[in-house]
Structure formats: structure tokens, C-alpha cells
Design brief:
Elements: H1 11-16, E1 43-50, E2 60-61, E3 67-70, E4 76-79, E5 85-89, E6 99-100, E7 106-110, E8 115-119, E9 125-130, E10 140-141, E11 147-149, E12 152-154, E13 160-162, E14 175-176, E15 184-189, E16 195-204, E17 210-220, E18 229-230, E19 236-241, E20 247-252, E21 258-263, E22 275-276, E23 282-286, E24 289-293, E25 299-304, E26 314-315, E27 321-324, E28 328-332, E29 338-343, E30 352-353, E31 359-363, E32 366-372, E33 374-378, E34 384-386, E35 391-397, E36 403-409, E37 417-425, E38 429-432, E39 440-449, E40 452-458, E41 463-466, H2 484-492, H3 516-524
Parallel strand pairs: 34-41
Antiparallel strand pairs: 1-32, 2-3, 3-4, 4-5, 6-7, 7-8, 8-9, 10-11, 11-12, 12-13, 14-15, 15-16, 16-17, 18-19, 19-20, 20-21, 22-23, 23-24, 24-25, 26-27, 27-28, 28-29, 30-31, 31-32, 33-35, 35-38, 36-37, 36-39, 39-40, 39-41
């Protein structure tokens, strides 16, 4: 028997490692309020569950996909992706957002008495530490796994390694900068008036004790205690109210230099943060508008919403901006156009997104889950598909859809062509056979309700359709590559009569058995390919 042993050291573990798509307030330690996940094109309610209180806080998502949400009472609830309550505690400190560590544990604040705490994913208390002052804020987890509470810096096991931040008033949830020894950024309010944006680093005092030292600070005659956001180049962005008519978005360099300041108008919610898009665009809300701001502080576009916001903006992987009001959620496209408006029967935070694109949002004292009416699963971006081959287009639906229209584009959506037999039953899959002849790495597939074109979904990213440039000796499975799948075909037919497709490739025309001659020929052409868009092919 011929045995193939494939060593993929490190690859499997990395691929299977569970990662939260929204592990803490603001989505990450930089508080960019952004995700690479693409939200629903047209949202449809999947489920809702009562989690107690009159208003939910911003949820977070565990490594297992469970959603953790605090309420304005003392409830902390874990909800499964299917909408069932997994567990609930009745000693949580209000509508704070638990932070999820790389180990899956939750870090949050408990009450009765007040304490910072660590829970496992089952809701069991692992450790807690009392505190006696300060206004409690949601914790943040740094790049090294350290947990930042309002009451100091802790190891994941609860050892305090940094004191409480010096303040007179209330500290925000902190944000972390970039680099091997990143600074920590906070906003806190003075006892008398105004706020301070501060950059801190952890140093030592004369007694060799750890203390927070100020790297730089920026004083504003304004009010907010929302955490600042940190861009990929280290620029720190903060948004604060100046008076009843205006609020300022300000950008600081990592050294504390004021780079620019932009007035975006009055904030209806009192204070909001900003969101950072995939191309470093900054999204702020104010004056009943969404403001898209370039990294240099110039305005890219503004979109009039006609009503004040009630929460910070959030941006998804398609650079769709989500604008929360007291009675609706508005999705704004990357060009400033309104994509959809969803009526909501109550107030709450901005949405977050699960790994499958499900949108979770607090509405009053309930958690709501929305999925796309139509969600394209494959191709969804990054695929290499050979022209003339067969490819399975896959999708999922919520609600009643009888037939779907399937189209493709080879120029990134500028033009669309229906597949052969374009209107097909809503079966969840379609055999695209044959894939059309095209040489393009700007391909997309779009699937829509055949009776309502407004209900649709498109590939999240472009994929490639290519014409194989060479007749490759050794390409047994006919995918325009000589590699692992061809070796597996040889192994499956070893010392046997050829199968389909035949691995009997040597001598030319075959000799009726798969043996070492076929392995030798395969080895001689190993890793050859004919995809003109693959830079490793060397065509």
C-alpha cells in the first residue's frame, strides 16, 4: 500500500484556532469599532431574546460564538448563536461590555460588592478583586493578554501589575497603541470642567513601584468619556462635544502633536466615538449626519440622516457604516448612500457581527439577531476557478424565497451576465457548468430574489476566473496545478488499474497500472501551474 504523509506544521492549528469577531467594547483594543465581517445586505430577524433590564449594553462574542450581553439591571447573559440562553448571572455591573481573552475567559465588573472579575465561558467565577472607588467602565485586553480595568492593569490570572489610572472623575475604557511597548490612551473628565486625552506608559517611582506616567496630554474644554480610537499608523482619534451646537473630531500623532481638528456638529447622544474603515477612513456622527473623513482630516463625504444618533458608529468589512438612532438602524454605503433602514422598537447600542455575518444588536432589554434574507456563501472572494470547470455556487436564505437569479461579473460589478438557466429554485446550491471562459481577477457573483431584485447578496470580495495557459503533464485532477491533489490521486490508485481521472500518466498513454513510473513523472513536474494570475507559476 502506498501511503502519503503530509506535514502541515503550524497551519492546521492556526486555521482551527478560535477567534472572536468582537471580543471587547469597540471591537478591539484600538477601539476602531470596525470588523472585517460583512453585514447583511437586507436584514431579516432571526430571533430575539429577553436579557433583562430596560436597555442592553454593547455585546461581545466568545470564542465559541456565544454572545455576552449586560443589562441595565444586574444581569449578564450568555446567548447561543441560535438564540437560546446558555447561562445568566445576577451580579453584573449594569450594561458593561465583558472582554473575552484569548483563553475564552470573560473579564468584567461584578457588584454586591463591587469587584473586577474573571469568569470562564460557563459563567463560573475564577477570580475577583474588590475596588473602592471610581466609575466603572468596560475592560480592555492588550496585545500581551493583560487586562485593563478602570482600577488598574492585571494579568489574566488576576495579579495586579499596574495601579489605577490617576484621575479625578471617571476614566474611560482604555485603548492601546501599536508597537512592542504600546502606550495606553484614556479620556477622563476633570472634577471641574473639560476633559483630557492622555497617553500613558507604565514606569517606576522612587520606591521602584509601578506607576502610570504621562507621555503627553491634550486638554479640551469639552465633555466626553468615550475611549479614543487608534489608526493603523498610530494616529489617535477622539471625538468630544464642545457646546450645544458643535463637537470636534481631533487627530493626534503618537507623539501628541495635534494633526487636525474638524467640527462635525452637535451630537444627539451626548458623546460618541468614531469608527475606522478598512482604507483608514474615519467615520464620525454629528449634526444628524454621518461624516466620512480622510486620514488628513479633509471631508470625503457627508450623508444627512435627518435624525440624531444615539450611539457610536460601526463599520463592517464592506465599509458599510451603521448609524443607530432611538428608533432605527440605518446602513450607509461606502459612497454615503443609504442602503437600508431598519425600524427598531427601542434604544440600544450599535450592532456587532458574528463570524457568519449575523448582526447582533440590543433593543431595549432584548438582544436581536438579524441575518441576510439572502447570503452568498461561495464564491465569496479569493477563489481561483478555472474556466470550463464545474463550480458549486452556494447560498443561504432567511424567509420565503421561491426562486433566485444568479449573475456574474468579470469587471468588479460594472456589468452583470446571468448564468445559464439564470432563474433556479431556492435549493441552496447551483452547479455552474461550465464556468465561462474569462481571464479576470475582478470576478463577482450576485444572487437575488427572482421576484424582488432589492433582496440580493454579492461576493464579499473578488475572485479569479482563469484560462489554463499550459497542458500540464502531471495535472491529473485537471485544476491547472501539479500538486497535492494529484499526488493523492496517485495514492488512491496505487498498484491498481487506473481510475477516473486516471493517474496512469507514464509512459505516455499509460501502461495499465499506477506505479513508480507515474510517481517519478509527477515529481518531475511538481508544482508546475498554468494560472496566469498566480505569481508563483512563473509563466
Amino acid at each position: 500500500m502506498f501511503t502519503v504523509v503530509v506535514m502541515l506544521s503550524g497551519v492546521v492549528s492556526a486555521a482551527n484556532a478560535a477567534v472572536s469577531t468582537w471580543p471587547m467594547e469597540g471591537g478591539n483594543r484600538f477601539h476602531t469599532r470596525s470588523t472585517s465581517i460583512v453585514g447583511p445586505t437586507v436584514p431579516v430577524l432571526k430571533w430575539s431574546v429577553d436579557v433583562g433590564g430596560w436597555r442592553c449594553g454593547e455585546p461581545s462574542i466568545g470564542l465559541d460564538g456565544n454572545i455576552y450581553v449586560g443589562g441595565t439591571n444586574v444581569y449578564l447573559t450568555a446567548v447561543s448563536p441560535s438564540g437560546s440562553v446558555v447561562w445568566q448571572r445576577t451580579d453584573h455591573f449594569g450594561a458593561l461590555t465583558p472582554a473575552v481573552g484569548a483563553n475564552g475567559n470573560l473579564y468584567t465588573n461584578l457588584t454586591l460588592p463591587g469587584r473586577i472579575a474573571c469568569l470562564n465561558s460557563n459563567g463560573d467565577l475564577l477570580w475577583s478583586k474588590p475596588y473602592d472607588w471610581g466609575i466603572v467602565k468596560s475592560p480592555m485586553i492588550g496585545a500581551d493578554g493583560s487586562v485593563y480595568f478602570h482600577y488598574g492593569k492585571y494579568t489574566p490570572d488576576g495579579e495586579q501589575i499596574g495601579p489605577a489610572f490617576p484621575m479625578c472623575g471617571c476614566a474611560t475604557s482604555v485603548s492601546e497603541g501599536h508597537g512592542s511597548a504600546p502606550d495606553i490612551y484614556t479620556r477622563h473628565r476633570h472634577c471641574i470642567s473639560g476633559t483630557t486625552l492622555r497617553a500613558w506608559y507604565l514606569g517606576l517611582n522612587e520606591q521602584n513601584e509601578p506607576v502610570w506616567k504621562t507621555r503627553w496630554s491634550g486638554d479640551w474644554s469639552s465633555y466626553t468619556n468615550m475611549a479614543p480610537s487608534v489608526c493603523s499608523d498610530g494616529t489617535v482619534i477622539a471625538h468630544a462635544i464642545v457646546n450645544d451646537d458643535s463637537s470636534l473630531v481631533r487627530a493626534y500623532s503618537p507623539l501628541g502633536d495635534l494633526l487636525w481638528s474638524l467640527d462635525v456638529g452637535h451630537c444627539g447622544s451626548g458623546a460618541t466615538g468614531v469608527a475606522i474603515g478598512s482604507d483608514s477612513a474615519i467615520y464620525a456622527v454629528g449634526g444628524k449626519k454621518v461624516h466620512a473623513i480622510n486620514p488628513d482630516g479633509s471631508t470625503r463625504w457627508t450623508s444627512n440622516m435627518g435624525v440624531y444618533e444615539s450611539a457610536s458608529p460601526v463599520v463592517d468589512g464592506a465599509d458599510t457604516v451603521y448609524y443607530r438612532t432611538i428608533s432605527s438602524l440605518i446602513a450607509v454605503g461606502s459612497d454615503g448612500s443609504t442602503k437600508w433602514v431598519l425600524s427598531l422598537p427601542g434604544q440600544g447600542p450599535s450592532p456587532i457581527f458574528g463570524n457568519d455575518g449575523t448582526m447582533y444588536i440590543g433593543v431595549g432589554g432584548s438582544l436581536y439577531a438579524y441575518d441576510a434574507a439572502l447570503r452568498l456563501l461561495a464564491p465569496n472572494g479569493g477563489e481561483d476557478i478555472m474556466a470550463g470547470s464545474t463550480y458549486t455556487i452556494q447560498w443561504d436564505t432567511e424567509g420565503e424565497i421561491s426562486d433566485v437569479l444568479i449573475e456574474y461579473s468579470t469587471n468588479n460589478g460594472a456589468d452583470w451576465t446571468a448564468v445559464d438557466q439564470p432563474n433556479v429554485g431556492n435549493t441552496g446550491s447551483y452547479e455552474w457548468d461550465p464556468v465561462p471562459v474569462a481571464d479576470s481577477n475582478d470576478c463577482l457573483v450576485r444572487i437575488s430574489d427572482a421576484s424582488d431584485a432589492a433582496v440580493y447578496d454579492t461576493s464579499d470580495g473578488v475572485f479569479t476566473i482563469f484560462v489554463c495557459q499550459s497542458a500540464l503533464i502531471g495535472d491529473i485532477v485537471n485544476d491547472c496545478y501539479v500538486g497535492l491533489y494529484d499526488l493523492i490521486a496517485v495514492a488512491n490508485q496505487w498498484i491498481q488499474a487506473p481510475g477516473d481521472p486516471s493517474a496512469d500518466i507514464a509512459p505516455p498513454g499509460g501502461d495499465g497500472v499506477v506505479n513508480l513510473m507515474d510517481v517519478a513523472l509527477l515529481a518531475g513536474h511538481w508544482l508546475e501551474c498554468g494560472n496566469p494570475f498566480d505569481p508563483t507559476c512563473g509563466l
